[in-house]
Design goal:
Layout: E1 4-9, E2 12-16, H1 19-22, H2 26-42, E3 47-52, H3 57-65, E4 69-74, E5 83-89, H4 98-108, E6 113-122, E7 127-132, E8 138-139, E9 142-144, H5 151-163, E10 172-178, E11 187-197, E12 212-218, H6 220-226, H7 229-240, E13 250-252
Helix pairs in contact: 2-3, 6-7
C-alpha cells in the first residue's frame, strides 16, 4: 500500500492515502506518506497538502506524524463535508531541527482566545461601561488580545483605540473562563485594575463609533441591570478582589469554583 500524489496547481500537489495503508499502523503509514512528500519536493513541487475528514482521527495523526502542518478547516469542500487542511512547504524548517518540530506542534495544539478588560472606577464608586455596537449588553472596556501581544498591553491599546483614553493597566484582578456562547468559541477573560479616576473623564472620551455606541459610569445596581448576568458576575468578582479580603482569582462565567473543585 502506498500514498498517491495528484496535481492541484503549478508546484502544488495533494497527497492521499487509503484506510488500508492506515491499517498498517501509525508509524508505517506516516513513514510512507512522509516518503511520498519528500519525493514530491525532489520532483520540483513546492507545496504538498492533504485534506482530511474531521471525523478520521487516525488520518489526522498520520498527517501530523508525516510532518504536515495543520493550516485550518476548508468548509464544504466540493459541496460535501468539511476537511482539515494539512500541508508542508519545501522550505519549511526540517523536523529534525527543534524549531521545525515546535512549529509542527504549534500548528495543531489547541489555542485559546484571550480577552483583556479594564476595571475603571470613579471616585464615587461607579464603574466605566461600554455599550458595543454588535450587542445590546454593556461590558467593561477592552477587547481581544492579538497574536503575540501581551494581554496587559492589549487592554491599554483597546482602551486608547476605542475610547481615546490613556490609562496604564494595573495588576491582574481576575481570570474568568467564558464558555462557548452565541456563536463565539470559549475564551479566557483577564480583568486588569484600571484604577480610580475623576468622573469628568467621561467628558473626554472619544468613541470609536464602529464599535462603541456609548460609554458611561454606572453603579453596581446599574451594572446588574445593563450587563449580561455573567458579565455582571465577572465585574462583581473583580471588584471583590480590590478589597483586603479578595475572592477567587479564577472564575467561570463569573462564578467561583466549589471548594476542592
Amino acid at each position: 500500500m502506498s500514498a498517491d500524489l495528484s496535481p492541484v496547481a503549478p508546484g502544488v500537489v495533494r497527497v492521499s492515502w487509503s484506510t488500508e495503508l492506515q491499517e498498517q499502523g501509525l508509524r508505517a503509514s506516516a513513514d510512507e506518506v512522509r516518503r511520498v512528500v519528500e519525493s514530491a519536493f525532489k520532483g520540483g513541487s513546492t507545496r504538498v497538502e492533504t485534506h482530511v475528514d474531521p471525523d478520521d482521527e487516525t488520518a489526522q495523526r498520520v498527517a501530523t506524524f508525516a510532518g504536515l502542518m495543520r493550516e485550518g478547516v476548508a468548509r464544504g469542500v466540493a459541496g460535501e463535508s468539511d476537511r482539515i487542511v494539512y500541508a508542508r512547504l519545501v522550505d519549511d524548517t526540517p523536523l529534525e531541527d527543534p524549531r521545525g518540530f515546535r512549529s509542527l506542534l504549534n500548528s495543531f495544539l489547541p489555542r485559546k482566545r484571550a480577552i483583556s478588560q479594564l476595571l475603571i472606577r470613579s471616585t464615587d464608586g461607579r464603574v466605566l461601561l461600554c455599550q458595543l455596537t454588535y450587542k445590546r449588553d454593556f461590558d467593561l472596556p477592552g477587547g481581544v488580545v492579538e497574536v503575540g501581544e501581551s494581554p496587559q498591553l492589549a487592554v491599554a491599546r483597546e482602551v486608547d483605540e476605542e475610547l481615546g483614553l490613556t490609562i496604564a493597566p494595573g495588576r491582574l484582578l481576575l481570570t474568568d473562563w467564558l464558555p462557548p456562547w452565541g456563536g463565539w468559541d470559549d475564551a479566557l477573560c483577564l480583568v486588569f485594575d484600571g484604577g480610580v479616576v475623576d468622573a469628568a473623564i467621561v467628558e473626554t472620551i472619544v468613541r470609536q463609533e464602529r464599535e462603541i455606541r456609548s460609554a458611561g459610569l454606572f453603579t453596581i445596581a446599574e451594572v446588574r441591570e445593563k450587563c449580561a448576568d455573567f458579565t455582571a458576575r465577572r465585574i462583581e468578582a473583580a471588584m471583590r478582589n480590590l478589597s483586603e479580603r479578595p475572592g477567587p482569582a479564577y472564575t467561570e462565567s463569573g462564578r467561583g469554583l466549589p471548594e476542592g473543585g
